[in-house]
């Protein structure tokens, strides 16, 4: 029996023996969830370990001063109580700064501090996890298990000691690149827009980073990676990898999405693709609709951009101001499920999961308004004909398998 198959069987035993012990079933409230969720889907949702591998709330905590153990309804997609209402069990918190930020490592530490403060204030609701065993213990205690995923290799500031420090604080994946990449790995943005790159893919130091991550047991995340960086990672890693928040290029040809040969390579590697909810990544018509919306409000958008606050602020402001109008361009939940379905049909149900990008995106699909909406994904998967066991894998079992395979 191969090591990969053995690890996979162990993961399934967890799903069938451990996750049914979840103690939070009675506490879950479905009053805020769409009435289309059936009793059967709620039962499946309650029993599963639900893992979301990408949420950017810590960026908003540091940049905007929000406190996510308070009610942030109407302000963010996320807060602690809404997570519980959506049945979330494990959150990998994105730690992020722009690729050209100064003191990026210090920013990472500040965001990690902000989560530690929340866990200290709420020991009965959320707890840091170091490994898969911790996750099972914390979830079985009815709490949310929290880990970090650092989004962008620039945040280690070309120092492997910083990588080690991040791991010791609970970082369990590193996204090697963001749009503005470090000088040792090229991003999808680099490789598709910059014809004068000094190199493509991993440098010698980039290969050292990959090998150090393998040695630590830190997952390598290929979301945002350029094609050459992706294939260099596949060549040099000796552990299963992840795409923490990516979707399918064949359905939406965005540079941020994964091509079929990349999806197949991740499956062959034993990794997992966590599908992103970003409308521009799941709906091939969205960019055109968004452009038309911005043209209708060009004077306001130009004014906001001239203020120097950037695209993010401009979009967030206009989407909220014209919320009724923007409803017409939000993609349906069906399109999100199409991406999960595509991966499952291409390489199998063992290689796909959920990486929402909540609070890292300005707009979400219909029926996925915020973190209370996860049960709608479960219902939609059931409607597509996925079995109970398959849904357990997608909601969290597949990521648990990959996490364990990276542990010592």
Features of this protein?
408 residues, alpha/beta, 2 domains, six-stranded parallel sheet, three-stranded parallel sheet, disordered N terminus, 9 strands, single chain
Any chance you could write out the topology, listing elements then pairs?
Blueprint lengths: L2 H15 L21 H9 L3 E5 L1 H8 L15 H6 L4 E7 L7 H18 L4 E3 L3 H9 L3 E8 L8 H9 L2 E5 L12 H6 L10 H13 L2 E3 L5 H10 L5 E5 L13 H10 L2 E4 L3 H4 L3 H11 L1 H9 L3 H12 L1 H4 L6 H15 L4 E3 L19 H10 L4 H19 L2
Helix pairs in contact: 1-19, 2-18, 3-5, 7-9, 14-15
Describe this structure in words.
The chain is α/β, with parallel strands linked by helices and 408 residues long. It folds into 2 domains: 3-283 and 332-406, Metal-dependent hydrolases (TIM Barrel, Alpha-Beta Barrel); 286-330, no CATH class. The chain is built from 19 helices and 9 strands. The chain has helices at residues 3-17, 39-47, 57-64, 80-85, 104-121, 132-140, 160-168, 188-193, 204-216, 227-236, 260-269, 279-282, 286-296, 298-306, 310-321, 323-326, 333-347, 374-383, 388-406, and strands spanning 51-55, 90-96, 126-128, 144-151, 171-175, 219-221, 242-246, 272-275, 352-354. The strands form 2 sheets. Strands 1, 2, 3, 4, 5 and 6 form a 6-stranded parallel beta sheet that branches. A 3-stranded parallel beta sheet has the order 7-8-9. Helix 11 links the parallel strand 7 (242-246) and strand 8. Helix 3 crosses helix 5. The protein starts with a helix and ends with a helix. Residues 1-35 have low confidence and may be disordered.
């Amino acid at each position: 029996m191969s090591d990969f198959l053995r690890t996979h069987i162990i993961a399934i035993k967890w799903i069938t023996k451990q996750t049914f012990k979840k103690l939070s079933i009675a506490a879950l409230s479905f009053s805020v969830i769409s009435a289309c969720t059936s009793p059967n889907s709620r039962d499946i949702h309650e029993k599963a370990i639900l893992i979301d591998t990408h949420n950017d709330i810590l960026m908003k905590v540091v940049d905007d001063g929000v406190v996510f153990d308070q009610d942030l309804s109407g302000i963010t997609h996320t807060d602690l109580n809404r997570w519980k209402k959506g049945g979330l069990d494990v959150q990998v918190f994105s730690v992020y700064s722009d690729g050209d930020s100064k003191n990026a490592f210090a920013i990472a530490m500040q965001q990690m501090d902000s989560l530690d403060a929340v866990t200290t204030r709420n020991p009965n609701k959320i707890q840091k996890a170091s490994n898969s065993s911790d996750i099972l213990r914390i979830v079985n205690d009815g709490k949310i298990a929290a880990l970090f995923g650092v989004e962008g290799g620039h945040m280690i500031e070309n120092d492997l000691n910083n990588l080690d420090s991040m791991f010791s604080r609970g970082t369990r994946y590193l996204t090697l690149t963001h749009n503005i990449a470090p000088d040792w790995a090229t991003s999808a943005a680099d490789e598709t827009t910059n014809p004068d790159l000094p190199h493509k893919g991993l440098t010698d130091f980039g290969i050292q980073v990959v090998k150090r991550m393998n040695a630590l047991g830190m997952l390598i995340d290929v979301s945002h990676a350029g094609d050459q960086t992706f294939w260099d990672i596949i060549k040099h890693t000796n552990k299963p990898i992840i795409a923490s928040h990516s979707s399918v290029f064949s359905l939406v040809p965005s540079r941020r999405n994964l091509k079929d040969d990349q999806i197949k390579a991740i499956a062959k590697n034993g990794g997992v693709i966590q599908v992103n909810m970003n409308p521009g990544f799941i709906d091939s018509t969205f960019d055109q609709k968004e452009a038309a919306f911005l043209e209708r409000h060009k004077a306001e958008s130009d004014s906001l951009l001239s203020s120097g606050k950037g695209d993010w602020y401009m979009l967030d402001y206009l989407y909220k101001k014209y919320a009724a109008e923007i409803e017409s361009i939000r993609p349906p939940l069906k399109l999100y499920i199409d991406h999960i379905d595509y991966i499952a049909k291409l390489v199998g149900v063992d290689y796909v999961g959920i990486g929402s990008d909540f609070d890292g995106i300005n707009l979400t699909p219909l029926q996925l308004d915020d973190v209370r909406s996860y049960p709608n994904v479960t219902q939609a998967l059931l409607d597509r004909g996925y079995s109970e066991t398959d849904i357990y894998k997608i909601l969290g079992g597949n990521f648990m398998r990959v996490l364990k395979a990276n542990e010592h």
